């Protein structure tokens, strides 16, 4: 999953970088971490609390009111990176804008966002927005865990524990998070146990288990299937494969982040290599004016503002009503019809047995259908890398395309090989004589 680091004041600079292919970040979630820690060493880098502070004009502005751990003795570059990160986080924790008012009831919600720094390092923000315990009117706050590791289910469970402790006291959160920082991130399929003391309850043992299939641990395909028909999912997939502009609309932040992560995961073993913002903050809505590819989520309340923007062709998807509001028009014709029908059959079969499958089974079934599409389309790529005596490889694109006997398949592949995601994949393949078949 790829995005650009979007501190508000750095928007234009980042767009310029995006237009320069050499600056497009590469890699996969968790593969590269921040300059401070290597992936897998720590569960998380920060836990921050973002609260709403009333300004002189009567509006509320999100501010970080708690940060764990506090870092000292950072080098200049590290300190600047931290400042940019901490400045951007509040925007994504309260992307709905500044028009809040104290309330008495609020259903807590979980969502996530992704930030990528200019050096290609990735961070994911796992958020739980909740109303602090108490009486009378009060404002919601967000507990946000920043990590370079992509595992939504596992971090949701951690946020459950944070919320439970928040209802007792902020002081009870610290020892739990300290224990988490001192524990190694488990390997796929493995479990780590955290000991945590809670007043009047005693010591609790909290087990955190990673899914066996690591590439699906940040994904919930069920969220997508519940809101969109298989037919529409294939239209969206076709647009994403050709790296077009995609806008998703929903009111709930959790729906936006879950569905967009799921769409990006359909591209595996390839990676979306352009602007990627699961929940766009209100102050960055003009992102939809970008002439370059993007995949973004916008709250439904901003629909009219989005439609009024002078944007180029884009696929606009309403996740609330399960329909496409605006399309390019050729989505039905992008994928080879035979393979398209086979994928529809597989997805419809899942829908007919919806109650039988667990979340993990749904993820495996859906992912397999799309991986098989890529295997049949471009799975022969390794046979068309010419190796020199020095060990470097050169991809023979023309021979690769000519090797496809089906005219409809070849027509699609000739477009797909021009995408950034295919180019990045082949660049990695050219560096190693070992085919990337483990990905398939």
TrEMBL record:
Cellular-component GO terms for this entry: cytosol; nucleoplasm
Occurrences of domain UDENN (ranges): 45-436
Keywords tagged on the record: Guanine-nucleotide releasing factor
Superkingdom of the organism of origin: Eukaryota
Record flagged with keyword Cytoplasm: no
InterPro entries associated with the record: cDENN_dom, dDENN_dom, DENN_C, DENN_domain_containing_2, Tripartite_DENN, uDENN_dom
Sample GO molecular function, one term: guanyl-nucleotide exchange factor activity
Protein name: DEN2D protein
Organism: Pedionomus torquatus (Plains-wanderer)
């Amino acid at each position: 999953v790829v995005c650009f680091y979007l501190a508000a004041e750095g928007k234009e600079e980042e767009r310029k970088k995006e237009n320069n292919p050499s600056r497009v970040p590469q890699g996969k979630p968790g593969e590269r971490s921040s300059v401070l820690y290597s992936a897998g060493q720590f569960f998380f880098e920060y836990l921050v609390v973002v609260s709403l502070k009333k300004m002189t004009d009567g509006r509320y502005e999100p501010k970080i009111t708690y940060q764990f751990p506090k870092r000292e003795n950072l080098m200049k570059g590290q300190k600047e990176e931290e400042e940019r990160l901490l400045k951007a986080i509040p925007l994504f924790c309260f992307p709905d804008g500044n028009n809040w008012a104290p309330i008495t009831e609020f259903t807590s919600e979980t969502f996530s966002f992704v930030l990528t720094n200019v050096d290609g390092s990735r961070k994911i923000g796992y958020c739980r927005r909740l109303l602090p315990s108490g009486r009378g009117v009060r404002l919601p706050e967000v507990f946000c865990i920043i990590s370079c590791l992509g595992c939504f289910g596992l971090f949701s469970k951690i946020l459950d524990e944070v919320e439970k402790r928040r209802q007792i006291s902020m002081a009870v959160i610290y020892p739990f998070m300290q224990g988490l920082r001192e524990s190694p991130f488990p390997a796929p399929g493995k479990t780590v146990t955290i000991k945590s003391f809670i007043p009047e309850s005693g010591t609790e043992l909290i087990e955190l288990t990673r899914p066996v299939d690591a590439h699906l641990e940040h994904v919930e395909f069920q969220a997508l299937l519940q809101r969109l028909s298989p037919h529409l999912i294939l239209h969206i997939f076709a647009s994403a494969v050709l790296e077009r502009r995609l806008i998703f609309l929903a009111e709930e932040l959790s729906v936006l982040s879950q569905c967009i992560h799921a769409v990006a995961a359909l591209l595996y073993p390839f990676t979306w290599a352009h602007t990627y913002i699961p929940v766009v903050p209100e102050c960055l809505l003009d992102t939809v004016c970008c002439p370059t590819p993007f995949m973004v989520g916008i709250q439904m309340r901003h629909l009219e503002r989005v439609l009024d923007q002078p944007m180029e062709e884009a696929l606009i998807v309403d996740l609330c009503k399960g329909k496409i509001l605006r399309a390019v028009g050729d989505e039905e014709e992008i994928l080879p019809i035979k393979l398209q029908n086979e994928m529809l059959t597989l997805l419809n079969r899942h829908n007919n047995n919806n109650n039988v499958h667990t979340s993990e089974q749904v993820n495996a079934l859906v992912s397999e259908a799309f991986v098989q599409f890529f295997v049949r389309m471009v799975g022969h790529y390794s046979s068309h890398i010419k190796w020199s005596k020095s060990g470097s490889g050169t991809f023979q694109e023309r021979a690769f395309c000519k090797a496809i006997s089906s005219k409809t398949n070849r027509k699609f592949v000739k477009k797909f090989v021009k995408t950034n995601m295919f180019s990045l994949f082949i660049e990695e393949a050219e560096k190693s004589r070992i085919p990337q078949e483990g990905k398939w």
